[in-house]
Amino acid sequence: MATTTASISISSDMMGYPININKTMTMMKFQSCNGLEETSGLRAHKFESTSAISIVEQDEYTDTKASKVYIRNTGSSKEAFFYVAKHASAAADATAGEAIGRLYGGDWMLIPYLGDVNITVAPSTAETMTLEYMVFAEGFLGGQG
Amino acid sequence: MATTTATVTISSSDLTPGMALNINASSTLMKTGTTTGLEIMDMGRGSLKQSDGNQSLQAVTATSDDYGQASYVYICNDSTDDQKYIKVGIEATVIGNLGAGDWMFMPWGQGDAAAELTIEAEATGTIPYEYAIFKSAYELPDAS
User: Would you kindly state where each structural domain of chain A is located, as residue ranges?
Assistant: First the structure.
């Protein structure tokens, strides 16, 4: 059994008192105390157009398990961003109710993933942008061609 | 200007044989398309019951001016019972299952009027949770 931990720390001076959120989780299989054992590996993809691509293909993962997906926009621009959506092939703000949100430069996300729908991204600009991502999987089926 | 930073560390010594995994990333959360920090947040905790059904954690704000803005969501399932998980969604799209002790952090674009955040307990008993939502903009609704 592998042990993979993920910690989040959020700090803010938005209020008149400090706000600090600190949590650590160990990535477990669905309804289990056994750790996730499979991964896509850490990947990076360079974009040079605004075309959408699916970075996580649902048919590579077993449905309704406890997989997780980490994604980060490696850029520094707070104007350029990636649309992120749970959709077979499209990503935009109003992608048929399946849009998640925008990842601006330096932004990251870590979400649970059911393996039921692709995760698709699209850059907001044709300028070179890079996304890194990794799937922590329960039930990796491999490339389906 | 407020400064809000979100940092993640993911590590494993044995997920990939012979190669330790260490991911560290940090982001300062800015208003949409700017280098001005976010200044609106909603934070709290509660408990869910399966009989409650699908619940709205946060509705989309009333005006389309808030659609497509930079907002971020943190949710944590504070249960310690590995049978108790929370189904998290945006509108009709299920993002995933948040197991006991699991947290998630993601952007929330509020793409349209229906893109509310939803949570649903998927086991008997109560499931404690906590959340924080950081927003670029929030237009107050008209008084009723």
Answer: 32-137
User: Domain spans of chain B?
Assistant: 40-135
Tokens of B79: 């249960």
For residue B5, the tally of other CB atoms under 10 A from its CB is: 14
B34: helix, strand or coil: coil
d(CA B96, CA A2) in angstroms, rounded, equals 21
- Which whole-number Å values give the CA distances from A55 to A42, A84, B53, B59, in the listed order? 12, 10, 32, 28
| Interchain CB distance below 8 Å, B82 and A33 | yes
Residues 91-120 of B with CB under 8 A from A: 91-99, 101-109, 111-112, 114-115
Please indicate if any CB of chain B lies within 8 Å of the CB of A34: no
How far is B116 from B95, CA to CA, in rounded Å? 12
Q: Quick one: CA torsion of A89, A103, A134, B26, rounded to 10 degrees? A: 180
* CA of A145 vs chain B CAs: smallest distance (Å): 24
Scanning every residue of chain A, which has its alpha carbon at the shortest distance from the alpha carbon of B82?
A31
Per DSSP bridges, beta strands B55-58 and A38-39 are unpaired
End-to-end CA distance of chain A: 29
pLDDT tens digits, one per residue of A3-32: 999 999 999 999 888 999 999 999 999 999
Name the CATH architecture for the domain at B40-135: Sandwich (2.60)
CA distances for B17 relative to A76, A97, A102, A140, B20, angstroms:
32, 39, 33, 16, 8
CA distance A66 to A68: 7
pLDDT in tens, A42-88: 999 999 999 999 999 999 888 888 999 999 999 999 999 999 998 87
Query: Does position A104 have pLDDT exceeding 80, yes or no?
Result: yes
- In terms of CATH, what superfamily is A32-137? Jelly Rolls (2.60.120.10)
